[in-house]
């Protein structure tokens, strides 16, 4: 039941992120409430505590990238909803899967938009410059709705969990 509900929330957020470049707060609030109710039903007070720990951990994972302007606030809050459903331990695996899927999607768009030189320039700057902190402006036409990567990465992590690998 939790898998289906979370996937529905992720799909709805992905659709609105693609169409409007926005993840709506009411959907996220409903997701947290559903996670809290389900986890309380399954685990009582311990379930409620795990929901809150997962919510905080999930939001925290993408909080710094949000502050740096790499992701939107909705992306950070959406990972909080994932944590609310499955707890802080799951967020560790889900984040790795989300990052992997996001990287694959990013490389796909770089190649598709013939921006391979941008990728090489970013790698050169990362490995061969002495300064460790850069703020670079990004062009909206070269970004993609990250909710898609969040949904696909979380689905991958859920599949791995069901198969017993997580």
Supply the key terms.
0% strand, elongated, mainly alpha, single chain, 166 residues, 7 helices
Describe the structure.
By secondary structure, the chain is mostly helical. The protein has one domain. Helices cover 78% and strands 0% of the residues. It contains seven helices and no strands. Helix 2 crosses helix 5. The longest helix has 37 residues. The two termini are 19 Å apart.
Task: Explain briefly what this protein structure is.
The chain is mainly alpha-helical and 166 residues long. The protein has helices at 2-20, 25-61, 63-67, 73-86, 88-112, 116-128, 147-162.
The figure for the number of domains is 1
- Total number of helical segments? 7
Extended strand count: 0
Query: What is the residue-averaged pLDDT?
Result: 89
pLDDT < 50 runs, ≥5 residues: 132-136
Integer-rounded radius of gyration = 17 Å
């Amino acid at each position: 039941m939790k898998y289906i509900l979370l996937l529905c929330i992720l799909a709805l957020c992905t659709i609105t992120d693609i169409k409007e470049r926005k993840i709506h707060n009411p959907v996220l609030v409903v997701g947290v409430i559903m996670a809290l109710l389900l986890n309380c039903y399954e685990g009582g007070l311990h379930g409620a505590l795990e929901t809150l720990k997962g919510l905080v951990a999930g939001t925290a994972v993408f909080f710094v990238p949000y502050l740096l302007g790499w992701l939107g606030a909705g992306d950070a809050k959406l990972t909080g909803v994932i944590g609310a459903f499955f707890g802080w331990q799951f967020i560790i695996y889900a984040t790795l899967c989300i990052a992997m899927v996001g990287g694959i999607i990013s490389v796909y768009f770089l190649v598709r938009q013939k921006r391979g030189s941008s990728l090489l320039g970013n790698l050169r700057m990362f490995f061969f410059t002495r300064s460790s902190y850069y703020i670079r402006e990004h062009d909206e036409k070269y970004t993609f709705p990250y909710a898609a990567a969040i949904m696909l990465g979380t689905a991958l992590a859920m599949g791995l969990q069901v198969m017993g690998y997580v």
